[in-house]
Amino acid sequence: MKIVYCISDHSRAGGTERTLSIQANHFAEHGHDVHIVTTEIPQREKPAFEFSDKINFHNLNICYEAVNNSMSPVKIWNRIRKGKEHKRKLNELLHVLRPDFTISLFDHELSFLHSLKDGSLKILQYHFSRYSRAIELKYNGAPTYQKWFALTKEWRKQSFINHYDAFVVLTKEDAKDWKNIRNLHVITNAISFIPEKSSTCLNKQVISVGRLTVQKGYDMLLEAWNKVVQKHPDWQLAIYGQGEDYGKLQSIIQQYAIGDSVHIFPPTRDIADKYLNASIYVMSSRYEGFPMVLPEAMACGLPCISFAAPCGPSEIISQGEDGFITPVGDIQALSEKLSLLMGDEPLRCRMGEKARSNIMRYSVEQVMGQWENLFNKLLNSKS
């Protein structure tokens, strides 16, 4: 099969880019002809995630980022112009490649990809939850006109979904929110690694990984940690990430005077080693799509504590068996579950063992088998 993926920039260090690398690498290494089409100048000279040498890359050099999310008449006009250029270039490329499947990761091309007559089946992948954008705008402090503009863009994007041959979301929880959508499918993300070793859960360290943004709720995690560290002063919290909230979070750390026990590190390619050196994973997100950090941490044998963010955590963590779920924003409950695991070594170790065994349902073999089944189903319906 020939498969084309469309994404703005494959080089970034996000969950969507990580998932793309897993899917594309799997298909390329199993003999399929895989192409990745991008529109932006790469953010990184070397991609954050490894991509197989067997994958072909095509940069259309559209550069939407220069005009995104602006109400300036000039930029709106340039955005329309870039959209037309994008459609023309992608149409020409697909007619040359003649793929069996063209997959949009819910990016700029989704408004027109379905209309291109290159003969390929068109699939949309959505890596957030149905209402994630609305939740984000609630907290980001943007002016009302920017919120209106952003939500209008989201509504417009969603109006095209039924024109596609398949629409793939990440969780059953999210699927319930997509009413009146035909050809809706649920396929989770796959674990990017399963280490041979497992955490001993004996080191007195809690870990969290993610962008330093309002979405990840680190402000709430630091408030919870301020409560916990008073009972467990010998424990450390390690946060791995970067983003616009770095300064705000450092101010909170200073306000609570918890700098001796909280450390923020930049992202690392060796995150598996960091999981293995920790004993608990904590996630304080306000919303998610399918947080890859949870199954990754569980694959390393860590019990996990998370808010019941829409969507994903409640389907990944088995309550009371391999971790704990608490209501979104309930800082007291989050701190209590942290304190429970930090103070109970046998419970921590039992949950860590369960986490590692339970999470194998998200192995690459299991998840990519679901993608192959979907491809075969679509090809059969086409014929």
From TrEMBL:
> InterPro entries, alphabetically?
Glyco_trans_1, Glyco_trans_4-like_N
All copies of the Glycosyl transferase family domain together span 204-357
Lineage top rank: taxon: Bacteria
A family per Pfam:
Glycos_transf_1
Q: Which Gene3D superfamilies match?
A: Glycogen Phosphorylase B
Domain named Glycosyltransferase subfamily 4-like N-terminal: residues? 14-191
Q: Keyword set for this entry?
A: Transferase
Named from the GO MF annotations, one term is:
glycosyltransferase activity
Name of protein: Glycosyltransferase family 4 protein
Protein species of origin = Parabacteroides acidifaciens
